[in-house]
Specification:
Strand order of the largest sheet: 1-2-3
Number of helices: 1
Distance between the termini: 50 Å
Radius of gyration: 17 Å
Shape: elongated
Number of domains: 2
Number of strands: 3
Length: 70
């Protein structure tokens, strides 16, 4: 394998891992300060945290998982 391609793949994997960790720690991790509310109206779903809308749109799945903070 070409060393440049190998280095590029390793860098890509490292960057994906860093982004995943940042999302887990900063956005997806429930804590006392972050309460995630799931609002379903018809076929539309909205995720709200501390009064801010994080995501909205139609859903296509019959099972929806939601994380609530204590």
């Amino acid at each position: 394998m070409d060393p440049t391609k190998r280095r590029s793949r390793i860098l890509t994997v490292v960057l994906i891992c860093l982004v995943a960790c940042a999302l887990l720690l900063c956005v997806l991790h429930p804590s006392a300060e972050h309460l995630y509310v799931l609002e379903v109206q018809g076929d539309s779903i909205t995720v709200i945290s501390n009064g801010r809308v994080l995501a909205t749109g139609p859903y296509q799945y019959s099972v929806i998982y939601c994380i609530f903070a204590d």
